[in-house]
Design a protein that fits this description.
Strand content of chain B: 15-25%
Helix content of chain A: 25-40%
Number of helices of chain A: 19
Oligomer: heterodimer
Shape of chain A: elongated
Shape of chain B: rod-shaped
Largest sheet of chain A: 7 strands, mixed
Number of domains of chain B: 2
CATH architecture of the largest domain in chain A: 2-Layer Sandwich
Helix content of chain B: 25-40%
CATH class of the largest domain in chain B: Alpha Beta
Strand order of the largest sheet of chain A: 27-28-29-33-32-31-30
Radius of gyration of chain B: 40 Å
Number of helices of chain B: 11
Largest sheet of chain B: 7 strands, mixed
Number of strands of chain B: 9
Distance between the termini of chain A: 89 Å
Chain lengths: 806, 345
Amino acid sequence: MKVSLNWIRRYIDIPADLTDEQIAYDLTMRTVEVEDVVNTAEKYHDIVVGRITEIQAHPNADLLKICIVDIGEAEPVQIVCGGSNLYEGENVVVSKPGSFVVWHGEGEPVKIKETKMRGVPSYGMICAASEVYLDPFFHDDDERVIVDLGDTPCTPGQNVAEVVGMDDTVLEIDNKSLTNRPDLWGHYGIAREIAAIYDLKLKTLPHISIDRDLPGFPVDIKEPQKCNRYDALVIDNVYDKESPLWIKSLLINAGMRPINAIVDITNYVMLAVGQPTHGFDRTHVVDKIIVRNAAKGEKLELLDGNKLDLTESDLVICDAEEPMALAGIRGGRKDSILPETTSIVLEVADFTAETIRKTGSRFDEKTDSSIRYEKGIDTERVDLGISVALSLFNEVFPEIQLVAYGSQYPVHTEKQIIEVTQDFLDRRLGTVLEKDEIKKILTRLGYDIEFTDNGYMVTAPVWRSTGDVSIKDDVLGDLARLIGYENFEAKPFPVNFEHAVRQPKQNLDRRLREYLAFRCGFNEVFTYPWIDEKFIEAANIDVSKAIDLATPPAPELRHLRQSLIPGLLEASMKNLRYFDEFNIFEMAQVFEKGEMHPSSDEETLPMQSMHLAGMLVGNDPKMLFFKAKGVIESMAGYCHMEEITLKQETQPGWADNGTYLNVIMDGEVIGDIGIVSVPTMNNAGIRRTSIAAFELDETKLVPLASRNNEFKHLPQFPLVEEDLSLLVDEDVTWESIREAIKFMVKDLQFVEEYRGKQIPDGKKSVMLRLKIGSDEGTMNAKQIDRKMKGIISALQKKCKAELRDE
Amino acid sequence: MLNRLEEIRKRGLEKIGEAADLDKLQETRRELTGKKGELTEVLKGLGKLEPDEKRSVGMKANEIKTFFADKIKEREEQIIASQSALDEDIDVTLPGTMVPGGALHPITQMCYDLNDAFLSLGFEIFNEDDISSEKYAFDNLNFPPDHPARATMDTYWIDGTENKNGTERLCMRPHLTGASVRYLLQHGAPARFVYPGRVYRNENTDARHERAFFQYEALVVDKDLSFSSGKVMIQTILEKVFGRKIKVRMREGFFPFTEPGYEIDMECLVCGGKGCRVCNNVGWIEVMPGGVIHPNVLKAANLDPDEWSGFYTNIGLDRLVMMRYGVDDVRLFHSADLRFLSQFK
């Protein structure tokens, strides 16, 4: 919302030493967020009033004239001008050299220089309205018509912004910060806040009481719970004319285009007190006003001939025959003010917030009127609206006559009465304020305060009583913000030593991420929970258990992820444009149909669990697989969690035939590792590379209560290290070799596997390194020999291994 | 004879100086003081000399022997000191061997920095699931029944539940605040806890708007808490995270779940409060909405608002990270683009 400080000045006298910036700052701190402070006079810099004292013919051009112009300086200046409406004694608008004008009203502003036109020197330019942002004030149907200020009060040399009222400062207020304050949607409300902040006097608005003897105008409210009040004023002797300059400039600075005086006045009332009003051409309204719900199948005809389909919950303003307007939101064809309009029915009404919000959101329509009603306006605002409207009509159309008046007022906004104890304020404010101080502050905001034995009986102003202020905490809030949050001494927290934070699972989550990032060289990524179905299909994931979004960002993104693999496939595909080798991981929730009750039995949520997944991208699938396996194998040790084991049980949909393992905990599969299969890679659009992937159900991982590092005594006697090179059948696994001899050695490591020329078909060579030793003493050659023989014979027996000749 | 000894000393000293490596020096030692060395020869011939001469020559020869031993030792140290472990010269300006890359997401980094700060003040960490219900996301939090945020234009509702109500209408949580009631229902009061996480809004995206983004919320519930304690907490936290005092200001704000509500702005770190493009020339950045927990929210958590009070602080993690590093497009956080992510170590 735009707030004109000139407008505010109509309601309060702003002290000379209070700058516009200071007002903006204090409003931001106390009331609403001011996003910008705009000086509207800036673009009129060096554009001044000039009086043409003499007009001479141009020696070299018939259409140009040489004007001698008084611009308030010591000497008159000479300006060459092609204007078609020049005359001696005319007050015109002069752009002095150095000012900026919009050439012929189009394009970027251009800087005016002292120049020669057809050989004759010209000091600046006499302007047309659209060239100097004056088109809302003065019409120029022909581009050769320059602004004739006529009898507008002005003096030569005076800045033109001042003449038309554009010497203003506009505060741009973030509408979001106003949502809870229906009283601030007009300048009077903002003025009241400024007056309260600086303890200034707020002027009262004109009060015009309506002659009780006026003929009535029939108003019939059928839905009093939706329309709490409806006043209709029939005003004769209006006509199509322009508003005075001061109304135009205030409207412009408040962000509204002047249209004609009748419409401008209705807009002015709304921007002044926040009360929307509506003018109907009297001749369009058949007999009376009826406020009712639309009938089934009823339509509202709009100005452009289109018809709006109404439902039975839409509140409409009707005459005796048909709907004329959607209450509080927009008018139809019948409510238009036309050039030939001479008499109007002025609606000043109160519709409830809920009604307007519902219908407004159904039509997806927000208007200046509906955004105000949506906030909840009190019924007494109608009186303010009527008074401001009538005083303006009287000023702009001295000949008008109020010929009839109708009012229905079934529901009055009740002022909220709230009991606030002193104790409550003292405790929650963290400071003790004087009773009189509290009364003074709240009174400035319009509250009525009565002292009671232990505090206050507070009556909220009617303009805050539509929901904004209803409990004692609201009163506290008003006090705190007006005193200023920065003015409360900050109180430190009490310390207690009873509650040490101990959250092993939280710690494990962090260790897992740090393990992958810092020890294993993975980059953490985040992907969206909604996944392109292309990648879900590529990963062979069954979507029958997927949770879908009702209104997804795009149709192909409707499924929420059941696994992190599809998202990481997409991330890998994208990164392959720039990198050949990389490792990424993600820890995030996945979703699936099912039931869980995190907080109460009445709430059933789908299954949601934290998953941890990673991908290693590169060229050597075997190496990638074993890297991934190493990451999982070392995880428990480094992250201090209960052991997980790896075993081949069920093939994940995305994994290569054979090259996969399942992660097992307590006999249950809680995750997978594998090489991503060729079909999955093809369907994901990934080529000429390999990916090893893993995914774990992180919720199943169990942190240890503490670190489980174990101290063992250093060996007392030296160990003997031996390398063995074995020839075994292809189907003999490392695991079977290890199982065969692990109880006989102090340490056993795999060194390498080899197939080649010297190795017969169907066989492979396996090299291992082992350490043997005795706890009783240093082994001698004989003991070593005996132990090695035992190991070799165990390998022969259990694995049919032969020793290769070195 | 004594002249000959002086001659030996002089030549010997030259030879020691000329020995270029330890082998040469060993050879020189043998030549000078070995069994067949000149000095030994002299000492062997002592018997033939007169007793007086014998004594002075003997003394001289022994003195030279010690002298040689010292000089050889000295030279040996010199040679060792000048040796290199490498047998070639290397270009020390060549790049070092890379430490394998890998990093936490910048959002996670910021989240952990905040966790460290809050844990040091005795806060617990709580996680809520991403899918919540209207009851927890809106009803409990004092959102009016027809609040616009409840519309499908703003919130991602789960297919099939969008026309239901309360606990049966499910959504991707639009903010973290719903988690506060879940925690309080589980743990009661007093409580101090943080609940970081990702939230979702049905929005059009651009450099400043995202559909999925990160928040970090903290709540303290205790008896007789005054809202001004909130300011101390924020200052402490920011100071811990950024390693220096950060100016903050607290101003009026409105949220359904607070009364009073406030916005906490921090001094713009890019311009130091002078005003720049990042802070829209005001010198302040709005980072933390907050406020005193609304009595209706306490009631939803089964707590008596006359007994308990507390305050929220909600930190926009994306915004704080953008601020910390000058990142100008919020969509980068979900891009999974390693060209971006690998910049944050």
